[in-house]
Amino acid sequence: MGISLSKGGNISLSKTDPMLKNIIVGLGWDARPTDGIDFDLDASAFMVKEDGKVRSDSDFIFYNQTKSLCSSVEHTGDNRTGAGDGDDESLVILLDKVPTDIQRIVFTVTIHDAEARKQNFGQVSHAYVRVVNRETDNEVARYDLSEDASIETAMIFGEIYKNNAEWKFKAVGQGYAGGLSALAKQYGINI
Amino acid sequence: MEIRRGQRVSITELCQCANTQVLHVVLSISGIQDTVDFACFGLNNQQKLSDDRYMTFYNQPNSPCGAVKLIASALGSSTFLCDVAVLPQTIDRLVFTAALNSTETMHDIHNGYVCFLSANQEVARFSFSGSDFHDEKALMLGELYRKDNTWRFNAIGQGFTGGLAALVMHFGGDVIDALPPPVSRISLEKKVAALAPKLVDLAKKATISLEKHRLSATLAQVGLVLDASGSMYAQYDKGKVQQVIERLLPLAVHFDNDGALDVWAFSNKVLALPPATLRNYADYIASAEYGWRQWGMMGINNEPAVIEQVVKHYQNTTLPILIIFISDGGVSQNTVIKKLLVEAAKLPIFWQFVGIGGRNYGILEKLDTLPGRVVDNCGFFALDDINSISEQDLYERLLSEFPLWLEAAKLKGIIQ
């Protein structure tokens, strides 16, 4: 078990695990096992510059564009490798390959068609994001954000960012209304 | 304060008061013709009802510790008084629920709400309406839960099409996960206690047999075929067939995901009756389809017709099916019955024939050794009178062959 963070907390990944080269960012959640409309949640990543915007649409990694041009970020979708047991969706980040002009990578989860289905994060339980050392399978950090999720339909679960020579992880837990498109616009994507 | 579905809020915020421990929670639903059953489930940290006494409802209006009380009930509304400070540490969560018993669904709700009163003043309200739902028959409206030594409220507004039984199963333990037997025992007795207290004793006896035969976690559908030929007249007239319904219902409630016993009567022709449930069992034979005297039965017996109809009814079912087939004998169409049952051996149906007070059971008596079948899909035993053996013995005999078939059918890939 890695270091457990609360909303707003951050840790240095490099200091916590000096061997860290490549990471898996695992995201998970449970919808209540009730009989209503199914929940369809999607994880995405935004690779942004110092100014908080993407360089181009190709810096938006999601189910329809699962790999960045530089190959440093890859959405592996459903976890089939067995590593990072229990994650609903995961992304692999090759830290050394992240382009120098990318300052941070933001991990978000959105509820598909939330408006029409009248769904929000308050109806989802055990939502979390965790960072795993890809080589050792060692969990470095985890943020359980169930209690921070309420009537939002899109949420930033967490982000990794460069701080001088080190990589840090921050537990964000910030929610938005308006779904994936609102979130994407904020980062400069044209949807 | 307006609370939206999915919203989480601390009770301090909810009541705008720092030290609130006592809450009046009013649950209300309008637009439903039949009664709405409201309840409060006290769950442990696994979100399970580990102690039956923490289901607070009309039949059990106080929790053992006195922390949860049903203090008022009216048509479509119930008020609970919750003193969370008094709750034992083992209770982590109070879930407020509503369940319907008729053909109506939560989509029929005109409007509904969960509201909180403090000093008789409404301080917060979570409103919902039928458009929030589809065909759910039971809802978790909202829950108060412990979090870091405080209590919070989450507006849930989600539920189950399976009604109260599905809800209780949700809280009582996941049957599919094959949890230890006590979990399903709680489910059966709890379900029966909630809806048909008169059958509690039967439910306990059924439970013992179910556990003994390792059937506690088995899901199945249960059907009952009733011989309604002329020779059965006295059995119906004296209420003995009604007793059969009562004795078999706990098994159906245990096995069945919808808690219902599918019933057919047959004589020359076949009549599919409405399912017997914990709601309608009490005068089932006298009232289903205007009562047995109006069924147009009491002629000769045509077993093949009913066997065909039962097979057809379950053709799209993936669960194993236990058919209890009551006959008083006089079986003559041996060749056709034999052919049908040999063909039916590849289906997920087990036929338990029970002879009552009759003779000349014909082929039924020889079913165990009927050749040409993939698995032995039939059992038979005869009684002089359904009431001549104890309930415990009856359950024992009804459940002795079914588990053997379950295993064999699994091996052959007939069931999963």
TrEMBL record, chain A:
<dbReference type="Pfam" id="PF02342">
    <property type="entry name" value="TerD"/>
</dbReference>
<protein>
    <submittedName>
        <fullName>Tellurium resistance protein</fullName>
    </submittedName>
</protein>
<keyword id="KW-0778">Tellurium resistance</keyword>
<comment type="similarity">
    <text>Belongs to the CAPAB/TerDEXZ family.</text>
</comment>
<dbReference type="InterPro" id="IPR051324">
    <property type="entry name" value="Stress/Tellurium_Resist"/>
</dbReference>
<dbReference type="InterPro" id="IPR003325">
    <property type="entry name" value="TerD"/>
</dbReference>
<comment type="function">
    <text>Not known; seems to contribute to the tellurium resistance (Ter) mechanism. Also involved in phage inhibition (Phi) and colicin resistance (PacB).</text>
</comment>
<dbReference type="GO" id="GO:0046690">
    <property type="term" value="P:response to tellurium ion"/>
</dbReference>
<feature type="domain" description="TerD">
    <location>
        <begin position="1"/>
        <end position="187"/>
    </location>
</feature>
UniProtKB/TrEMBL annotation, chain B:
<dbReference type="InterPro" id="IPR051324">
    <property type="entry name" value="Stress/Tellurium_Resist"/>
</dbReference>
<dbReference type="InterPro" id="IPR019303">
    <property type="entry name" value="vWA_TerF_C"/>
</dbReference>
<keyword id="KW-0778">Tellurium resistance</keyword>
<protein>
    <submittedName>
        <fullName>Putative stress response protein, TerZ-and CABP1</fullName>
    </submittedName>
</protein>
<dbReference type="InterPro" id="IPR036465">
    <property type="entry name" value="vWFA_dom_sf"/>
</dbReference>
<feature type="domain" description="VWFA">
    <location>
        <begin position="221"/>
        <end position="398"/>
    </location>
</feature>
<dbReference type="InterPro" id="IPR003325">
    <property type="entry name" value="TerD"/>
</dbReference>
<dbReference type="InterPro" id="IPR002035">
    <property type="entry name" value="VWF_A"/>
</dbReference>
<dbReference type="GO" id="GO:0046690">
    <property type="term" value="P:response to tellurium ion"/>
</dbReference>
<dbReference type="Pfam" id="PF10138">
    <property type="entry name" value="vWA-TerF-like"/>
</dbReference>
<dbReference type="Pfam" id="PF02342">
    <property type="entry name" value="TerD"/>
</dbReference>
